[in-house]
Amino acid sequence: QDHVCSLPKVPFRGAPCSDAAGSQVPYSTIMKQVNSSLSGVLWDEVQKAPFYEYKDSAGQFHQVWFDDPHSISLKAAYVKSRGLRGIGMWNGNSLDYSKEAAAEQQTQAMWQALTP
Question: What residue stretches are annotated with the GH18 domain (predicted)?
Fold first, then answer.
């Protein structure tokens, strides 16, 4: 079904359906893949996070959830408004640090979003 992606039940740390059933995708891959995905960028208002959907070459349906500068800035603003002492981003080394202009702009925007 559209917008429904069931993770396989792979036990991990006691959770029946966990991150052990998925994998991490580098931000550079996400930025290239999202434009050719089935859905384009979708937004989940509860999670305040973007995601997209695609089918692989075997016809398997996938969802990729990620943060972008908009979602990071919302989370950073929430932290600041509550007087909390910090925020983290998973996994800064997944950004694209190549010298390509688009990559440099995307990486800079992600880091700037952490400081509202």
Answer: 1-116
